[in-house]
Amino acid sequence: MLKIGVIGCGAIGKEHIKRLMYLVPGAQVVACADFYPEAAQKTAAMFQVPTVYQTGEELIGASEVEAVVITSADDSHFAYTLAAVKLGKQVFCEKPLALTASECEEIIAEEVKQGRRLVQVGFMRRYDPGYAKMKEIIDSGELGAPLMIHACHRNVFQSEGFQTEMGITNVAIHELDICRWLLGDEYKKAQVLKVKQSGRSTKGYDNPQIVLLETEDGSRIDVELQVCDAYGYDIQCQVVCEKGTINLPDPASVIMRAEARCSTELLTDWAKRFIEAYDIELADWVNAVEKGELTGPSSWDGYAACVAADALNRSRGTETFLPIEMIEKPGLYQ
Ligand code: ISE
Protein backbone atom coordinates (compact mmCIF):
# COMPACT_ATOMS: atom_id res chain seq x y z
CA MET A 1 0.00 0.00 0.00
CA LEU A 2 1.40 3.40 -0.99
CA LYS A 3 0.83 5.80 1.93
CA ILE A 4 -0.14 9.15 0.49
CA GLY A 5 -0.54 12.64 1.98
CA VAL A 6 -2.76 15.12 0.11
CA ILE A 7 -2.18 18.89 0.36
CA GLY A 8 -5.20 20.92 -0.73
CA CYS A 9 -8.74 19.89 0.16
CA GLY A 10 -10.67 21.95 -2.41
CA ALA A 11 -12.68 20.50 -5.29
CA ILE A 12 -9.96 18.51 -7.06
CA GLY A 13 -8.32 17.57 -3.72
CA LYS A 14 -11.51 15.90 -2.49
CA GLU A 15 -12.02 14.17 -5.84
CA HIS A 16 -8.47 12.77 -5.75
CA ILE A 17 -8.76 11.65 -2.11
CA LYS A 18 -11.97 9.80 -2.99
CA ARG A 19 -10.28 8.16 -5.97
CA LEU A 20 -7.20 7.16 -4.00
CA MET A 21 -9.27 5.81 -1.09
CA TYR A 22 -11.96 3.90 -2.96
CA LEU A 23 -10.91 3.33 -6.56
CA VAL A 24 -7.17 3.15 -7.12
CA PRO A 25 -5.66 -0.20 -6.13
CA GLY A 26 -2.65 -0.10 -3.79
CA ALA A 27 -3.23 3.43 -2.49
CA GLN A 28 -4.17 4.75 0.93
CA VAL A 29 -4.53 8.40 1.95
CA VAL A 30 -2.97 8.59 5.41
CA ALA A 31 -2.96 12.37 5.88
CA CYS A 32 -4.28 15.62 4.50
CA ALA A 33 -3.68 19.34 4.98
CA ASP A 34 -5.10 22.57 3.68
CA PHE A 35 -4.35 26.29 3.87
CA TYR A 36 -7.59 26.40 5.89
CA PRO A 37 -7.14 23.67 8.55
CA GLU A 38 -10.94 23.38 9.05
CA ALA A 39 -11.28 22.38 5.39
CA ALA A 40 -8.76 19.59 5.98
CA GLN A 41 -10.63 18.46 9.13
CA LYS A 42 -13.92 18.29 7.23
CA THR A 43 -12.38 16.39 4.33
CA ALA A 44 -10.65 13.96 6.69
CA ALA A 45 -13.96 13.23 8.39
CA MET A 46 -15.67 12.76 5.03
CA PHE A 47 -13.20 10.17 3.73
CA GLN A 48 -11.82 8.64 6.97
CA VAL A 49 -8.36 10.13 6.52
CA PRO A 50 -6.58 9.34 9.83
CA THR A 51 -4.32 12.39 10.25
CA VAL A 52 -4.69 16.10 9.58
CA TYR A 53 -1.59 18.31 9.54
CA GLN A 54 -1.76 22.04 10.19
CA THR A 55 0.49 22.85 7.23
CA GLY A 56 1.58 21.31 3.95
CA GLU A 57 5.21 21.44 5.08
CA GLU A 58 4.43 19.33 8.17
CA LEU A 59 2.63 16.78 6.00
CA ILE A 60 5.55 16.55 3.58
CA GLY A 61 7.96 15.95 6.48
CA ALA A 62 5.76 13.36 8.23
CA SER A 63 7.48 9.98 8.41
CA GLU A 64 4.37 7.92 7.52
CA VAL A 65 3.81 9.92 4.31
CA GLU A 66 5.62 8.07 1.49
CA ALA A 67 4.23 10.10 -1.41
CA VAL A 68 2.59 13.51 -1.70
CA VAL A 69 -0.32 14.67 -3.86
CA ILE A 70 -0.50 18.45 -4.34
CA THR A 71 -3.93 19.84 -5.16
CA SER A 72 -3.59 23.22 -3.45
CA ALA A 73 -3.73 26.67 -5.08
CA ASP A 74 -1.54 27.07 -8.18
CA ASP A 75 0.84 29.53 -6.48
CA SER A 76 1.75 26.95 -3.81
CA HIS A 77 2.67 24.08 -6.17
CA PHE A 78 6.30 25.10 -6.61
CA ALA A 79 7.27 25.31 -2.92
CA TYR A 80 5.48 22.09 -1.93
CA THR A 81 6.89 20.14 -4.86
CA LEU A 82 10.41 21.36 -4.21
CA ALA A 83 10.18 20.54 -0.49
CA ALA A 84 9.01 16.99 -1.20
CA VAL A 85 11.66 16.39 -3.88
CA LYS A 86 14.36 17.62 -1.48
CA LEU A 87 13.26 14.86 0.91
CA GLY A 88 13.38 12.32 -1.90
CA LYS A 89 9.60 11.78 -1.73
CA GLN A 90 7.43 10.99 -4.73
CA VAL A 91 5.10 13.84 -5.74
CA PHE A 92 2.02 14.03 -7.88
CA CYS A 93 1.46 17.74 -8.52
CA GLU A 94 -1.67 19.07 -10.20
CA LYS A 95 -1.11 21.40 -13.15
CA PRO A 96 0.62 23.83 -13.39
CA LEU A 97 3.87 22.51 -11.89
CA ALA A 98 4.72 26.13 -11.00
CA LEU A 99 3.75 29.62 -12.04
CA THR A 100 6.93 30.32 -14.02
CA ALA A 101 9.49 28.42 -16.04
CA SER A 102 12.31 29.48 -13.72
CA GLU A 103 10.55 27.86 -10.75
CA CYS A 104 10.21 24.65 -12.82
CA GLU A 105 13.95 24.83 -13.52
CA GLU A 106 14.62 24.76 -9.77
CA ILE A 107 12.48 21.65 -9.39
CA ILE A 108 14.24 20.01 -12.33
CA ALA A 109 17.67 20.85 -10.84
CA GLU A 110 16.69 19.28 -7.51
CA GLU A 111 15.21 16.18 -9.15
CA VAL A 112 18.35 15.74 -11.28
CA LYS A 113 20.42 16.05 -8.08
CA GLN A 114 18.34 13.26 -6.52
CA GLY A 115 19.16 11.19 -9.61
CA ARG A 116 15.70 9.74 -10.26
CA ARG A 117 12.28 10.84 -11.35
CA LEU A 118 10.21 11.91 -8.37
CA VAL A 119 7.57 14.15 -9.96
CA GLN A 120 4.49 13.53 -12.05
CA VAL A 121 2.43 16.51 -13.24
CA GLY A 122 -1.37 16.26 -13.46
CA PHE A 123 -1.72 16.61 -17.22
CA MET A 124 -4.54 14.09 -17.17
CA ARG A 125 -5.66 14.61 -20.77
CA ARG A 126 -2.83 12.29 -21.87
CA TYR A 127 -4.81 9.51 -20.17
CA ASP A 128 -8.12 10.38 -21.84
CA PRO A 129 -9.02 7.55 -24.25
CA GLY A 130 -9.97 10.10 -26.96
CA TYR A 131 -6.67 11.96 -26.91
CA ALA A 132 -4.76 8.66 -26.51
CA LYS A 133 -6.37 7.32 -29.71
CA MET A 134 -5.54 10.56 -31.56
CA LYS A 135 -1.90 10.18 -30.51
CA GLU A 136 -1.89 6.55 -31.64
CA ILE A 137 -3.15 7.53 -35.11
CA ILE A 138 -0.65 10.40 -35.45
CA ASP A 139 2.24 8.17 -34.37
CA SER A 140 1.19 5.37 -36.75
CA GLY A 141 1.85 7.73 -39.68
CA GLU A 142 -1.37 6.48 -41.33
CA LEU A 143 -2.51 10.06 -42.07
CA GLY A 144 0.90 11.43 -42.93
CA ALA A 145 2.51 14.27 -41.01
CA PRO A 146 0.43 16.46 -38.71
CA LEU A 147 0.31 20.03 -40.05
CA MET A 148 -1.82 21.99 -37.61
CA ILE A 149 -4.12 21.80 -34.61
CA HIS A 150 -7.31 23.77 -34.08
CA ALA A 151 -8.43 23.62 -30.45
CA CYS A 152 -11.10 25.19 -28.23
CA HIS A 153 -11.27 25.36 -24.45
CA ARG A 154 -14.66 26.74 -23.42
CA ASN A 155 -15.59 26.96 -19.77
CA VAL A 156 -18.52 28.37 -17.80
CA PHE A 157 -17.03 29.48 -14.50
CA GLN A 158 -13.90 30.67 -12.72
CA SER A 159 -13.55 31.38 -9.02
CA GLU A 160 -13.11 34.79 -7.43
CA GLY A 161 -9.65 36.26 -7.98
CA PHE A 162 -9.23 34.90 -11.52
CA GLN A 163 -6.99 37.04 -13.75
CA THR A 164 -6.19 37.30 -17.47
CA GLU A 165 -2.77 35.60 -17.06
CA MET A 166 -4.43 32.61 -15.38
CA GLY A 167 -6.27 32.00 -18.64
CA ILE A 168 -2.88 30.74 -19.76
CA THR A 169 -1.23 29.33 -16.61
CA ASN A 170 -4.35 27.63 -15.24
CA VAL A 171 -6.62 26.96 -18.25
CA ALA A 172 -4.76 26.88 -21.59
CA ILE A 173 -1.91 25.03 -19.84
CA HIS A 174 -3.81 21.83 -20.74
CA GLU A 175 -3.60 22.66 -24.45
CA LEU A 176 0.04 23.69 -24.07
CA ASP A 177 0.78 20.20 -22.81
CA ILE A 178 -1.52 18.11 -24.96
CA CYS A 179 -0.53 19.74 -28.28
CA ARG A 180 3.21 19.20 -27.80
CA TRP A 181 2.46 15.64 -26.65
CA LEU A 182 0.24 14.89 -29.67
CA LEU A 183 2.78 16.33 -32.09
CA GLY A 184 5.88 15.00 -30.31
CA ASP A 185 7.45 18.40 -30.88
CA GLU A 186 8.57 21.46 -28.91
CA TYR A 187 7.37 25.04 -29.36
CA LYS A 188 9.37 27.65 -31.27
CA LYS A 189 7.22 30.76 -30.87
CA ALA A 190 4.02 31.91 -29.21
CA GLN A 191 1.57 34.77 -29.20
CA VAL A 192 -1.68 35.52 -27.39
CA LEU A 193 -4.32 37.80 -28.87
CA LYS A 194 -7.05 39.72 -27.15
CA VAL A 195 -9.89 39.37 -29.64
CA LYS A 196 -13.38 40.84 -29.69
CA GLN A 197 -14.59 40.53 -26.09
CA SER A 198 -17.80 38.79 -25.10
CA GLY A 199 -20.48 41.13 -23.81
CA ARG A 200 -21.53 38.33 -21.43
CA SER A 201 -18.16 38.44 -19.74
CA THR A 202 -17.49 41.61 -17.81
CA LYS A 203 -15.41 40.35 -14.93
CA GLY A 204 -12.30 42.41 -15.55
CA TYR A 205 -10.20 39.79 -17.33
CA ASP A 206 -9.71 39.03 -21.01
CA ASN A 207 -12.28 36.62 -22.40
CA PRO A 208 -11.99 35.24 -25.01
CA GLN A 209 -8.32 35.08 -25.94
CA ILE A 210 -6.65 33.26 -28.82
CA VAL A 211 -3.41 31.36 -28.31
CA LEU A 212 -1.16 30.89 -31.34
CA LEU A 213 1.88 28.61 -31.39
CA GLU A 214 4.39 27.32 -33.86
CA THR A 215 6.47 24.21 -33.23
CA GLU A 216 10.12 23.52 -34.11
CA ASP A 217 8.90 21.40 -37.01
CA GLY A 218 6.68 24.22 -38.35
CA SER A 219 3.27 22.92 -37.23
CA ARG A 220 0.79 25.65 -36.31
CA ILE A 221 -1.64 25.60 -33.40
CA ASP A 222 -4.55 27.88 -32.61
CA VAL A 223 -6.52 27.64 -29.37
CA GLU A 224 -9.73 29.54 -28.75
CA LEU A 225 -9.92 30.20 -25.04
CA GLN A 226 -13.16 31.11 -23.27
CA VAL A 227 -12.34 30.84 -19.60
CA CYS A 228 -15.92 31.47 -18.48
CA ASP A 229 -19.45 32.37 -19.57
CA ALA A 230 -19.44 29.88 -22.43
CA TYR A 231 -22.52 27.77 -23.23
CA GLY A 232 -21.00 24.75 -21.45
CA TYR A 233 -17.70 23.04 -20.70
CA ASP A 234 -16.62 22.10 -24.18
CA ILE A 235 -13.18 20.90 -25.20
CA GLN A 236 -12.50 20.52 -28.92
CA CYS A 237 -9.36 19.46 -30.73
CA GLN A 238 -8.80 18.78 -34.41
CA VAL A 239 -5.46 17.67 -35.78
CA VAL A 240 -5.06 18.31 -39.52
CA CYS A 241 -2.69 15.82 -41.12
CA GLU A 242 -1.47 15.50 -44.71
CA LYS A 243 -4.03 12.82 -45.60
CA GLY A 244 -6.93 13.57 -43.27
CA THR A 245 -8.08 15.02 -39.97
CA ILE A 246 -8.60 13.57 -36.49
CA ASN A 247 -11.14 14.99 -34.04
CA LEU A 248 -11.36 14.53 -30.28
CA PRO A 249 -14.65 12.70 -29.58
CA ASP A 250 -17.26 14.41 -27.42
CA PRO A 251 -18.15 12.58 -24.21
CA ALA A 252 -20.96 10.07 -24.63
CA SER A 253 -24.38 11.57 -24.06
CA VAL A 254 -27.90 10.40 -24.84
CA ILE A 255 -29.62 11.82 -27.88
CA MET A 256 -33.05 13.19 -27.13
CA ARG A 257 -35.70 13.67 -29.81
CA ALA A 258 -38.69 15.76 -28.77
CA GLU A 259 -40.84 18.63 -30.03
CA ALA A 260 -39.33 18.45 -33.50
CA ARG A 261 -35.79 18.81 -32.12
CA CYS A 262 -32.89 16.47 -31.65
CA SER A 263 -30.57 17.37 -28.76
CA THR A 264 -27.78 16.13 -26.52
CA GLU A 265 -26.84 17.60 -23.17
CA LEU A 266 -23.46 19.28 -22.68
CA LEU A 267 -21.43 19.16 -19.49
CA THR A 268 -20.68 22.26 -17.43
CA ASP A 269 -18.24 20.79 -14.89
CA TRP A 270 -14.63 20.17 -15.97
CA ALA A 271 -14.09 17.54 -13.27
CA LYS A 272 -16.77 15.36 -14.94
CA ARG A 273 -15.52 15.84 -18.51
CA PHE A 274 -12.24 14.04 -17.85
CA ILE A 275 -13.34 11.80 -14.99
CA GLU A 276 -12.05 8.65 -16.67
CA ALA A 277 -8.71 10.29 -17.46
CA TYR A 278 -8.26 11.30 -13.79
CA ASP A 279 -9.02 7.75 -12.66
CA ILE A 280 -6.53 6.19 -15.09
CA GLU A 281 -3.91 8.84 -14.36
CA LEU A 282 -3.84 8.28 -10.59
CA ALA A 283 -3.92 4.50 -10.95
CA ASP A 284 -0.99 4.75 -13.36
CA TRP A 285 0.96 7.02 -10.98
CA VAL A 286 0.47 4.75 -7.94
CA ASN A 287 1.45 1.71 -9.96
CA ALA A 288 4.53 3.46 -11.39
CA VAL A 289 5.65 4.67 -7.95
CA GLU A 290 5.32 1.12 -6.59
CA LYS A 291 7.38 -0.21 -9.50
CA GLY A 292 9.90 2.64 -9.20
CA GLU A 293 9.49 3.64 -12.88
CA LEU A 294 7.60 6.88 -13.49
CA THR A 295 6.46 7.23 -17.10
CA GLY A 296 3.71 9.89 -16.85
CA PRO A 297 4.11 13.64 -17.49
CA SER A 298 7.38 14.76 -15.90
CA SER A 299 8.86 17.95 -14.46
CA TRP A 300 10.26 18.50 -17.94
CA ASP A 301 6.72 18.46 -19.34
CA GLY A 302 5.59 20.82 -16.57
CA TYR A 303 8.52 23.07 -17.49
CA ALA A 304 7.85 23.00 -21.25
CA ALA A 305 4.25 24.08 -20.68
CA CYS A 306 5.37 26.88 -18.34
CA VAL A 307 8.00 28.16 -20.82
CA ALA A 308 5.24 28.52 -23.42
CA ALA A 309 2.88 30.06 -20.83
CA ASP A 310 5.55 32.63 -19.85
CA ALA A 311 6.07 33.61 -23.49
CA LEU A 312 2.32 33.87 -24.11
CA ASN A 313 1.75 36.10 -21.11
CA ARG A 314 4.71 38.30 -22.10
CA SER A 315 3.39 38.59 -25.64
CA ARG A 316 0.00 39.99 -24.57
CA GLY A 317 -0.54 43.41 -26.12
CA THR A 318 2.65 43.27 -28.24
CA GLU A 319 0.91 41.80 -31.31
CA THR A 320 4.07 39.80 -32.01
CA PHE A 321 5.21 36.21 -31.74
CA LEU A 322 7.81 35.75 -29.04
CA PRO A 323 10.53 33.10 -29.32
CA ILE A 324 10.42 30.16 -26.93
CA GLU A 325 13.79 29.19 -25.51
CA MET A 326 14.27 26.14 -23.35
CA ILE A 327 17.22 24.91 -21.30
CA GLU A 328 18.99 21.75 -22.42
CA LYS A 329 16.98 18.64 -21.60
CA PRO A 330 18.66 16.67 -18.79
CA GLY A 331 19.30 12.98 -19.47
CA LEU A 332 16.82 12.04 -16.74
CA TYR A 333 13.95 13.04 -19.02
CA GLN A 334 15.22 11.61 -22.32
C1 ISE B 1 -9.66 24.38 -14.19
O1 ISE B 1 -8.86 25.03 -13.27
C2 ISE B 1 -9.01 23.13 -14.62
O2 ISE B 1 -8.02 22.71 -14.13
C3 ISE B 1 -9.64 22.44 -15.73
O3 ISE B 1 -8.95 21.31 -16.07
C4 ISE B 1 -9.76 23.39 -16.88
O4 ISE B 1 -10.28 22.72 -17.98
C5 ISE B 1 -10.62 24.54 -16.47
O5 ISE B 1 -10.90 25.39 -17.53
C6 ISE B 1 -9.94 25.28 -15.36
O6 ISE B 1 -10.76 26.32 -14.96
Layout of helices and strands:
Blueprint: E1 2-7, H1 11-22, E2 27-33, H2 37-47, E3 51-53, H3 56-61, E4 67-70, H4 77-86, E5 90-94, H5 101-114, E6 119-122, H6 129-140, E7 146-154, H7 166-183, E8 187-194, E9 209-215, E10 220-226, E11 234-241, E12 245-247, E13 255-258, E14 261-264, H8 270-273, H9 275-291, H10 299-315, E15 322-323
Parallel strand pairs: 1-2, 1-4, 2-3, 4-5, 5-6, 7-10
Antiparallel strand pairs: 7-11, 8-9, 8-15, 9-10, 11-12, 13-14
Bound molecules: (2R,3S,4s,5R,6S)-2,3,4,5,6-pentahydroxycyclohexanone.
Explain what this protein looks like in three dimensions.
The protein is of the alpha/beta class. It has two domains: 2-125 and 276-298, Rossmann fold (3-Layer(aba) Sandwich); 128-268 and 305-333, Dihydrodipicolinate Reductase, domain 2 (2-Layer Sandwich). The chain contains ten helices and 15 strands. The protein has helices spanning 11-22, 37-47, 56-61, 77-86, 101-114, 129-140, 166-183, 270-273, 275-291, 299-315, and strands at 2-7, 27-33, 51-53, 67-70, 90-94, 119-122, 146-154, 187-194, 209-215, 220-226, 234-241, 245-247, 255-258, 261-264, 322-323. The strands form three sheets. Strands 12-11-7-10-9-8-15 form a seven-stranded mixed beta sheet, with helices on one face. A six-stranded parallel beta sheet has the order 3-2-1-4-5-6, with helices on both faces. A hairpin with a 4-residue loop joins strand 9 (209-215) and strand 10. Helix 5 (101-114) packs antiparallel against helix 10 (299-315). The radius of gyration is 20 Å and the shape is globular. The mean pLDDT is 97. The structure holds (2R,3S,4s,5R,6S)-2,3,4,5,6-pentahydroxycyclohexanone. (2R,3S,4s,5R,6S)-2,3,4,5,6-pentahydroxycyclohexanone (ISE) binds next to helix 7.
